[in-house]
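User: quick one - fold this with adenosine-5'-triphosphate bound?
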Amino acid sequence: MGYVRIVVENVDFSYRGLFRPRGKPVLRGASWTVEPGVTGLMGPNGAGKTTLLSLLVTLAAPQHGRVLIGEHDVSRPAGRREARRLLGFVPQRFSLAGELTVADTVSYAAWVNGVPRRACGGAAAGALALVDAAALAARKVRTLSGGERQRVGIAAALAHDPRILVLDEPTVGLDPGQRLRAREVIARLGASRTVLLSTHLVEDVAHLCERVGVLAAGRIAFQGTFAELEALAEDSDPGRRYGSAFEHAYDRLIARVGATS
Ligand SMILES: Nc1ncnc2c1ncn2[C@@H]1O[C@H](COP(=O)(O)OP(=O)(O)OP(=O)(O)O)[C@@H](O)[C@H]1O
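Assistant: Sure. Structure tokens for the protein plus adenosine-5'-triphosphate:
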């Protein structure tokens, strides 16, 4: 199966409610192309990263503009149906039934996502192997550590063998060893899929992401490589270290977008 890109075209999105019929604009004319491999989505708290990921995985629909998953336009019901087969999603917080085994949890995810019942066991075993979690298959979910649980969540999202994997802050709350392990798993998955993850961690982007998008003031203010983002720092201080150069580039970018919006 080939690679699949994600295209976001001129998307507006507001959360609307009974008392806010026009809503609060979160995305305003956001456009972005996510290529195969691993891409990071960054942006300040409240910028709309989770909102944008929800639109990409068809949990919400834009009020204007469109989202394409491969050739499928998710604003149409048929396009949404086809797109969902191609998508796996790991939300920032997810609940798993503590009394189920890991194998049953991932088999169930496969079945929910359309894998025929007789193939679910094999699909689960394959997905667990992909995330280095085959040895956890017989464990009850309630006995897992945070890092193990995160890998099982990723396996559940992979159980129907999607071409695209979307992860919302996948390394939050993991200790440094587990974070490295999660990065290794995600990098491996990105070798044959389109992987998009949101993160606040500069090290995640530096070590893992071939490309990065920065969301600010309702749109993708930057898309390019990590090195290109870093170069925005226009390093006037030769003593500045690697990490802080990135923070500097990032701050300048956000300030520039804030001034023009
Ligand atoms: N269900 C909702 N109803 C109304 N407003 C919401 C809802 N979810 C998010 N928002 C608002 O939309 C804006 C974007 O939120 P979102 O969670 O997408 O940002 P984020 O970039 O993921 O933030 P963080 O980095 O803190 O996780 C915020 O102002 C938030 O308060």
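One thing worth noting: The CA atoms of residues 10 and 29 lie 4 Å apart.
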